[in-house]
Design a protein that fits this description.
It contains 13 helices and 8 strands. The protein is α/β, with parallel strands linked by helices. The chain has 2 domains: 179 residues, NAD(P)-binding Rossmann-like Domain (Rossmann fold, 3-Layer(aba) Sandwich); 88 residues, N-(1-d-carboxylethyl)-l-norvaline Dehydrogenase, domain 2 (Orthogonal Bundle). It has an 8-stranded mixed sheet, with helices on both faces. Strand 7, helix 7 and strand 8 form a beta-alpha-beta unit. Helix 1 crosses helix 3 and helix 8 packs across helix 10. The longest helix has 20 residues. The structure holds nicotinamide-adenine-dinucleotide. Nicotinamide-adenine-dinucleotide (NAD) binds next to helix 1 and helix 5.
Length: 291
């Protein structure tokens, strides 16, 4: 199936990055968010990231012009999806919310349109079951920050068709991503392994085994991870990580029980870079009022 127009639902951390990759890949891209200010920030992010790409020699001025010419926004999910060949949902990690969005998509999108969720861990099969087109539903799991991260994990749900998978592979390729296809299982490959590493780091911090800085340093320099687990969780969002762990705990068992310290940080509002404070402090982010 040919994809020309992509709608991205949710303009937060992930949605704005996905919109950037889609626009740069030459797709007509519509971005949507329930929050008007977040939508504007998302569009500004796409513009600024294209500028940065030019400054770093990664994007040509022509690519920027073409990407911006094809970038638009919508005031509701209904409006965003009407013309889209592919809708990528990047709303918060809550099953009820995603199910609501997929119901609206099924009602208002074109009959042949593909619906993808960027969920880090939830069941695509369960989300797809509320639609009349489960063969057109798939997981497209991008990584943060989307412009920089090469991997796209495509998740095959119970009824995802070969045609849907092939279409998403091609979209991933045009967005400049390397693709792996995984069978649906809680947390897929990356979130499942990463959640355990991150949770273990919080246990070690709580036990006083080492400081956050030293745990991060050990993982970077000893195991060659590009970021330490606390640097990474601050980027991902502690609330996002907690909800992934809660889901893995419910579906896969005790091994994934969230660390009490992680829970406490989330209760304290220490949600990571976006809140100006996570495991580490980010005074600049707070001053700019980043969401
Ligand atoms: N943050 C990460 O590192 C990361 C990585 C991979 C996947 N994910 C997944 O991507 C999804 C989005 O995560 P995020 O970090 O971008 O979250 P986020 O909170 O930064 O952004 C979500 C956005 O969705 C908007 N929203 C809420 N309800 C909506 C609705 N009904 N319609 C349209 N927009 C709505 C919110 O206003 C918000 O701007 C989640 O499923 C998450 O698990 C996140």
């Amino acid at each position: 199936m040919e994809v020309n127009k992509i709608a991205v639902i949710g303009a937060g951390t992930m949605g704005r990055g996905i919109a950037y990759a889609a626009a740069l890949g030459g797709y007509c891209t519509i971005l949507e968010d329930v929050s008007a200010p977040v939508l504007q920030q998302g569009l500004a992010y796409v513009r600024e990231t294209l500028e940065e790409g030019i400054a770093r020699g990664k994007v040509t001025p022509l690519q920027k012009e073409q990407a911006l010419a094809c970038l638009g926004s919508a005031g509701s999910v209904e409006e965003a999806c009407r013309e889209a060949d592919l809708v990528i949902e990047a709303a918060p990690e809550e099953m009820e919310l995603k199910v609501d969005i997929f119901c609206i998509l099924d009602k208002f999108a074109k009959p042949g349109a593909i619906f993808a969720s960027n969920t880090s861990s939830l069941s695509i099969t369960e989300i797809a079951a509320v639609t009349c087109r489960p063969e057109k539903c798939v997981g497209m799991h991008f990584f943060n920050p989307v412009p920089k991260m090469k991997l796209l994990e495509i998740v095959r749900a119970l009824e995802t068709s070969e045609d849907t998978l092939a279409t998403c592979r091609e979209v991933g390729r045009r967005m400049g991503k390397e693709v792996v296809v995984v069978r649906e299982s809680p947390g897929f490959v990356t979130s499942r392994i990463n959640a355990l590493i991150g949770n273990e780091a919080f246990h070690m911090l709580q036990e006083g085994i080492a400081s956050a800085e030293d745990i991060d340093k050990a993982m970077r320099l000893g195991l060659n991870h590009p970021m330490g687990p606390f640097e990474l969780v601050d980027l991902v969002g502690l609330d996002v990580r907690l909800s992934i762990l809660e889901y893995l705990h419910n579906t896969l068992g005790e091994k994934y029980r969230p660390s009490p310290l992680l829970r406490q940080y989330v209760k304290a509002g220490r949600l990571g870079r976006k809140a100006g404070r996570g495991v580490y402090e980010y005074p600049d982010a707070k001053a700019k009022g980043q969401a």
